[in-house]
């Protein structure tokens, strides 16, 4: 149906505006991390916040007060979990995954790719999207904790991968200098 009544439209406008203002307030109070997508947990919180807002806006069964409590609870829990993750490595390992090296110094790592359920086609797509042409062009491809790919092109970029568990921090093989006379 295209239109029921003006009351429903007014409810959406009022509840939507108040819910939005409450959400902005909570995000400002809780900090920038609240809506980041640094890992899968953060992404879930962001999606859940959107779902709550949609429910409050469109469902007459969910009151504005219930939505505000749900926003506050979810953002509060995310704040606590992020804070505990910063203060406790064991807790951080419990709630967060580690980045995974999928390609290193021009070679794919099939065992890592299989473990993470990532195909060669997906790695190649990530390389192309970052301007690389082949696997041999890249120093490393990392599957990040949020599910995105980081493509490091050039040996000088490998220091960015030092926190990746499988990272081999050995220096690149030395090239023999050619003498031109």
What do you see in this structure?
The protein has helices spanning 6-30, 40-58, 64-87, 89-95, 110-115, 120-129; strands at residues 100-104, 107-108, 140-143, 149-152. α1 (6-30) runs antiparallel to α2, α1 (6-30) runs parallel beside α3 (64-87) and α3 packs across α4 (89-95). It is elongated, with a radius of gyration of 23 Å. It is of the alpha+beta class and 181 residues long. A 4-stranded antiparallel beta sheet has the order 2-1-3-4. It is 50% helix and 8% strand. It has 6 helices and 4 strands. A hairpin with a 5-residue loop joins β3 and β4.
Outline the secondary-structure elements.
Layout: H1 6-30, H2 40-58, H3 64-87, H4 89-95, E1 100-104, E2 107-108, H5 110-115, H6 120-129, E3 140-143, E4 149-152
Antiparallel strand pairs: 1-2, 1-3, 3-4
Tally of strands: 4
Name the average pLDDT: 84
Unreliable residue runs: 170-181
N-to-C series of helices and strands: HHHHEEHHEE
Q: What's the shape?
A: elongated
Helix content: 40-55%
Which range does the strand content fall in?
A: 5-15%
Query: What's the alpha carbon Rg, rounded to whole Å?
Result: 23 Å
Task: Outline the biggest β-sheet.
Answer: 4 strands, antiparallel
User: How are the strands of the biggest sheet laid out side by side?
Assistant: 2-1-3-4
Please give the oligomerization state of what you see.
single chain
- Determine the structural class based on helices, strands and strand pairing: alpha+beta
Distance between the termini: 84 Å
